[in-house]
Design goal:
Aminopeptidase, alpha+beta, 86 residues, globular
Length: 86
């Protein structure tokens, strides 16, 4: 499964897509499913006129980082911060 939220980017001055989840059950990995899901999100983003798609990945998840890089996603200079609401 994959989910993508539509966000407004002040930097882009337009909509962007934020991929929140990309999950493939372990038994079904290495079958091209995740690639097809990413490609579908790209197509939808283009169809809706988004300026970019983005996602966050754990810096320690070497498999995910390599997968995204092979799919043409580029690492940015940004760091993500969050605050947990008590």
């Amino acid at each position: 499964m994959v989910t993508m939220q539509r966000l407004i980017s002040s930097a882009e001055g337009s909509y962007i897509g934020q991929i929140e989840d990309l999950v493939v059950k372990e038994d079904y990995r290495k079958m091209g499913i995740a690639s097809r899901l990413i490609n579908r999100m790209r197509a939808l983003a283009e169809e809706y006129g988004y300026k970019r798609i983005q996602l966050a990945a754990d810096v320690n998840n070497a498999n995910a980082l390599a997968f995204y890089t092979r799919r043409g996603l580029k690492r940015t200079h940004l760091s993500i911060y969050h605050y947990l609401i008590p």
